[in-house]
Each structure stands twice: as C-alpha cells, then as structure tokens.
Amino acid sequence: MKKYGTLIALAVAVVFGILAVVLANKWLTARSQDQVAIKEQVPLTQVVIAARDLDIGTRLTEQNLVLAEWPKASAPKGAFSKIEDVVGRVTVTKMVAGKPLVAAELAAEGSGVGLVAQIRPGYRAMSIRVDEVIGVGGFILPSTYVDIIAVEGGKGGKMIGDTILERIQVLAVAQETFVEEGKAKLVRTVTMELSQRQAEKLAAQINQGPIHLVLRNPMDLNEQVVEVQEKPAVQRPVVRRAPAPVKKSEPAPFNIEVIQGDKKPESYKF
Fold it and tell me: Does residue 102 contact residue 76 with C-beta atoms inside 8 Å?
C-alpha cells in the first residue's frame, strides 16, 4: 500500500507540472501577442545611430554606424534615415552608442577631420602657452569658456589688469579635444576659437606682457564687464568759524560829591 501511495503522489506531481507548463506557455503567448499588437500600433521609422562611443572629430564610416527602428513621433529633429547620407562627415560633439545622429552635431561637409572640423566659419584656432596658474589649476578643458586678462604696468610702477577678450571658447587642451568631464588636466598649451581681430589682439598682447585666463560659467552670457574704479576723495570745504565779537567792558559807575562853602554837599553819579 505504501508503494502505491508513492506512485500516486508522483503521478499527481507530474500532472500538476504539466498543467503549470501549459498555463505558463499560454500566458507568454498572450503577452507576446499583446506586445506585437502594441508595436503595430506605434508608427516606427529608421534612424542612423552610433554603433559605439564616438569622440569629437571622428570621421563617420559604415563600421561605426547602424540603422535602428525608432518611434516616428519622437525621432529627433535633423536625424538621418540613410547611412550613406552621413558617411564621411565628422562629429563635433562626443556621442554615445545608441544615440541618433543629428545634423547639428556634425561638421559641414568637406570641413576636414579633427580640430579643424570644429572651427566655425569666420573663426580661427589659436594656441597659447599656459602653466598651472594661468590654466586655472588644469580646470580649463575643451568646450569651456574663458576671459583673457592682460597685465600691464601703470603709473608709478603699479600693475594694472585689463580684460581684453571675453567668453572665448576653448577647443582643445594640449592635443586633446575631449577629456573626462570635470577631471582637471595640467597642460602646457590651450587652443581657443577666436575671430581674426581677436587673434590679432591676443598675439600683440602676448608680446607686450603677461596674460591670465579666467574660467567662467558657460551659462553666463553677459559680455559686459562692470569696471569698479576708485573714486577720488571728495574734498569737503573747510568751514572756519568766525571769532566771537569781543565785548567792550564798561567802567563801573561812581559818585562824586561837590562841597561848596556852607552849602549842602551835592552828589553826582557817573
């Protein structure tokens, strides 16, 4: 009897196991059909995305690009639908794998590769020598903004600082156009994007005296420097009090008696 009880328990377990498998299969099939139905309801389109992480100045090829389906309603503006439309273009920003490519993040066609592709039309790239102090402790990094201060001698040998250029974008530090975000890097040269006039002004100033770079917040768009000048001391008029008038002292009054013969003395007051 004990033997049959074991067989019965085993048979019941097998039956329940088969039942669980059948129910799970039905549930997965229904879920898959629901997902297919939802997918069919959302209009999709194909966009070109980065197949791997791309640094600034990378030339796009068929090897580092791939087509992917993307919800049509959320496709980014300026996205590409064909890989051949972007092959040969150069990135001007760092891109991560899986991110759709947009025209605003690519250099113009025929603009070259590397740093030269990042220079905007009408601008120049100019490098200056820096040290730990001039380079703000290594926190001047690509894509940051700086002001440039010139230091000159004034009257009486007093040194005077003057801001000659404002909100200048840094293109590269040393030979790197991208470094790990927020990580300081001590370098000997900094390359900045300048207009031709700005480049001429900076070149002339470098030969005249020392300069300093001042790191500024990229959200600070105000390019007007409020100069605080020392106001000359106001000379107040000297008020002198007139001396008090001297009062003349009057003589004390006195009496004089006049005696004439046997007459009664007469008294006179002076």
Answer: yes
